[in-house]
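How a chain folds remains the central question behind the approach discussed here. For one protein, we set the task of working out the structure tokens from the amino acid sequence alone. The sequence in question and its structure tokens are set out directly beneath this paragraph.

_____
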Amino acid sequence: MELTYRTEGDYQVPNLAAPEEPPVTLGKYALLRKKYLKQNRRVLYLNFLTAGTLNEHLTEIERTANERMELMIAQMAAARGVTEQMKADNQMMWVGRMNNIRHSAEEMILHDLIYA
């Protein structure tokens, strides 16, 4: 790779540009991870950005977070006895318990994947 320079005042400044990444649609967890990296882990964020792997990292985080959410919700619902029968018998109780399970699982995902 040949490095070129441009003159700005009395200085020679290298012409550097971050590698082009294909555009991707980022979901909730990817956007949260990007915001966290940008605000709290600046060096890591810049390393991903300059290497051209930021979108790849964010896509992997999104995929992993969604897979874990589905798995954790199913496991926690089974462990707490939340079934389709409960949904048919007492819908409000089922909704309350599923919301509790979903929020608990999301809290674990945020702690383990996003803000780590």
